[in-house]
Amino acid sequence: MSAFAGLLAQIVGVGAQAAGAYTQSQALRAQGDYQKQIADQNAATARLQAEDAIKRGERESHLIRMRTRQLRGSQRAAFAAQGVDVDTGSAADLQADTVALGALDAMTRQNNAYFEAWGFRSEAAAESHQGRMRQRAARSAARSTIATGGLGFVRDIGAAANEYEKKRPKNYGDQG
Predict the structure, then answer these.
(1) How many domains does the structure of the chain reveal?
(2) Does some domain include residue 47?
């Protein structure tokens, strides 16, 4: 094989190596973008779950208040049916306790819903952050791959040129 053909083969090999580094960098970048997209979707789902938790809490809290009113009405009807004054004494105390405990139950359910929503919102924030970090890490790895491939390209071209110089036929006019 002539020196020029050897040089040409090395240059083609180095070019293929550089193209491979570029392709790998693009794959790393695409992988990071995909991971960010998945994390963004997970975050959106968590935000929807937070909204759902609040709505369920409000709905259940409303149902607790309705049942409390119904219970109080049943208590009043039962006392009245027995001839008891519903607005004084033990009958009034029992109704007041029913209303207070019902309100406490409703507030507890609402509070639990807010805590559940807070957990989902925290999850959404963490997913978004992780997605951004994965994307940045992938882009950094892509840049590193390009830089490493570029340095390897320069090194290998230099080595090929040196090899060519050693093997090329000497002309009469050369001093070396």
Answers:
(1) 1
(2) yes
